[in-house]
């Protein structure tokens, strides 16, 4: 039978007597700041990571670029009355005229669809390029500017055409966007062109070239 002194040692225990008191839940060290989740590099805009913030700033800069003046290569001398009248004969005649493209592009800008003309012009420029290194770079820029869903200047393409572009972008060529260019050309022809012909812009050009009546002479 243990003596009272031994019983006391068994109750406290030398190890427990020397052990520092355990921390309670109230005394626990405060947790450190939550670690940042690594950027997911996702293709959506739902997360607030720094990568997407950079993309947002890039998008804003691209939006502002749409307010820049038209390139000088598409700003031409005033068209003749005969040329203006020819634009109403067919969409092809309008698009084959540098002045016609410039006037039509200005009209598209008022409808917030200028990216259709910009995309078509970029494809024309790509098809005229022979240097493969330049083709690769221009194709990448066209994709980022007009095909990517992240771009504010994304053009309206169906899924079949998009899938075809994604396959061709593995080895870009001067004709990577031919199907997409035709689709946007058709869209402008059927959708924007009829409104352009009845727009105040085009009607004013027609009146400017109309012969003066004898009463106005």
UniProtKB/TrEMBL annotation:
One matching Pfam family: RGS
Region (Disordered): 1-30
Database matches in PROSITE patterns: RGS (PS50132)
Keywords: Signal transduction inhibitor
Biased composition (Basic and acidic residues): 1-19
Segments forming domain RGS: 90-206
Gene Ontology terms describing biological process: negative regulation of signal transduction
Name of the protein described by the UniProt record: Regulator of G-protein signaling 19
Name of the gene this protein is made from: Rgs19
């Amino acid at each position: 039978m243990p003596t009272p002194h031994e019983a006391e040692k068994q109750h406290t225990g030398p190890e427990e007597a020397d052990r520092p008191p355990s921390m309670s839940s109230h005394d626990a060290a405060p947790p450190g700041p939550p670690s940042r989740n690594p950027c997911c590099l996702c293709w959506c805009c739902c997360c607030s990571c720094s990568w997407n913030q950079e993309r947002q700033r890039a998008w804003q800069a691209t939006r502002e670029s749409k307010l820049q003046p038209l390139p000088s290569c598409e700003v031409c001398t005033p068209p003749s009355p005969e040329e203006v009248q020819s634009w109403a004969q067919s969409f092809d005649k309008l698009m084959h005229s540098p002045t016609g493209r410039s006037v039509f592009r200005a009209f598209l800008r008022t409808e917030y669809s200028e990216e259709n003309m910009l995309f078509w012009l970029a494809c024309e420029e790509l098809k005229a390029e022979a240097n493969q290194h330049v083709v690769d770079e221009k194709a990448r820029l066209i994709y980022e500017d007009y095909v990517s869903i992240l771009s504010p200047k994304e053009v309206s393409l169906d899924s079949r055409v998009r899938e075809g572009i994604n396959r061709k972008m593995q080895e870009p060529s001067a004709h990577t966007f031919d199907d997409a260019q035709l689709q946007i050309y058709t869209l402008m022809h059927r959708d924007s062109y009829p409104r352009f012909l009845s727009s105040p812009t085009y009607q004013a050009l027609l009146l400017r070239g109309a012969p003066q009546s004898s009463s106005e002479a």
